[in-house]
Amino acid sequence: MTTSVVSIVYVSDAPAAARFYGDLLGMSPSFETPGYITFDLGPGADLGLWSGQFEDLSPDVPRTSEVCLAIDEGPDELDAIFTRWQSKGVTILREPHDLGFGLTFLAADPDGNRIRVAPRG
User: Which InterPro entries is this protein grouped with (predicted)?
Assistant: First the structure.
């Protein structure tokens, strides 16, 4: 039986990516090696940052997914997160907008991986 779902994000430098995500999430990694670092996001969910250095993966691997940080708070909290991330210099791909399920915005990590902030639902 699966005990956790780990969403893996491919990065070029796992420690640098961990500092970026740790700052955004306000948490420290739960597991660290030079090429693979995880964050425990709560029961049954982890975020893994994988450099692929042990499998000779190319940094040119296409980015075809996104990490979504689902929030329980409303539009005011989403706007506050957006403002906080902008002040940290996070790359914003799309400013807050309504997609029918609520207000959302899209950002990118230093490797170009997409990060969406949206309502939990």
Answer: Glyas_Bleomycin-R_OHBP_Dase (IPR029068), Glyas_Fos-R_dOase_dom (IPR004360), Glyoxalase/dOase/EhpR (IPR026275), VOC_core (IPR037523)
